[in-house]
Amino acid sequence: MKIRWLIIFFFMALVSIAGLFIPESSSLYNVVDENINYADTAWMITATVLVLLMTPGVSFFYGGMVRAKNIISTMLQSFIAMGIISVIWVIFGFSLAFGDDIAGIIGNPLTFFMFDGVGYNTHELLSPTIPLVVFALFQMKFAILTPALITGSFAERVHFSAYIYFIILFSIFVYSPIAHMLWHPEGLFKQWGVTDFAGGLVVHTTSGIAALTGAIFLGKRKNTSSVPVNIPFVLLGVAFLWIGWFGFNAGSALAVNSVAVKALVNTNTAAATAMLTWIAYDYLRGRKPGAVSASVGAVAGLVGITPMAGMVSVGVSFFIGFITALICNIAIHYFSKSVDDALDVFPTHGIGGIAGSLLTGVFYNGLLAGNTHEFFMHIAALVITVAYSFIVSFLLYYIINKFIPFRVSDVNEEIGLDVSQHNESYKN
Known about the structure:
Layout: H1 2-19, H2 38-63, H3 71-98, E1 101-102, E2 106-107, H4 132-150, H5 160-183, H6 188-192, H7 200-218, H8 231-250, H9 258-284, H10 291-305, H11 314-335, H12 345-363, H13 372-403, H14 410-415, H15 417-422
Antiparallel strand pairs: 1-2
Helix pairs in contact: 2-3, 2-4, 2-8, 3-4, 3-5, 4-5, 4-7, 5-7, 5-13, 7-12, 7-13, 8-9, 8-10, 9-10, 9-11, 10-11, 10-12, 11-12, 12-13
């Protein structure tokens, strides 16, 4: 078991020592770039902080819904992504997603290696009015959040060390190529005319499909009946998510403009509509309105509006919130019967991201505007993203499992991951 952590330790030691020999980017300090818009820059720094808040939000949201013996492990799986992905992103992750284009599929890992050249200057293609380093940090928070979302699907039964290796490889082989294809100006899907304003495909579909794959690969828990340990944590988590989502969506305008304002309004409207729709639909099905239901409903609306947040009218955001809540609610009901996705990541983020991305091809310069080509390009990008995410995620689970058992033993599952994985416990 020690070899797993020795590899990580020596990798960090190597990176730390190598960093001493990397020259400081001449564009980072003491340079005046006349293209910089300081209002845009101030907003994007704020948006970056808001998006980072979403990962602790996921931590509390998921942590509150598991059993007491797994709350620390579940929360730590989200928190650790902030450390792991931040390091990977600086070394070569940003280059893979936004470096010089290679065949429209991936970026050159050496373009911004160790953040070389990522400084205070603007970048003509990526950040025309803000420093490239601000853009890189903003995008880093998206890369951090995506693997954190996956954790809810295999909660209460995964080895912590196996999970760490998974999110490293997921970031490299799944997230970065999809992000490049959709968000780099020369990316394949971008060239097709596909719109993913803030991550319906890049973040929610990839994480949702990886979550489904993980739930299938690991199998069901020995005991799937559980009472949420701390519902106030769930409410706190969704509050962080809702607030952070303003930076997530409105920040994706990359400027202080009408697009950012539109995204801000649409984000709030869709979330509110979905929350009310969810609890009303639950009541019509014989369930009492609850805090967890209201929280999950709000998240479904936030997911659904994300790929088009800055592109559609507020009236459309009402519809997106309503329809996404219904689709995700029904999906949870049916998927829970066959797959143990512990915290319903796939029905919420996967189905919500797919629905939102598909509807983007309908409402934004697509089917309703008579542009059938745009609509079918969205479908093509969606199918490729789903298939690619499923296949590569499955291979990652399979390969890692050959070296590190992905699922904990029955004894450790019964003891709980807090004690068996971390030697810590939660006092309720």
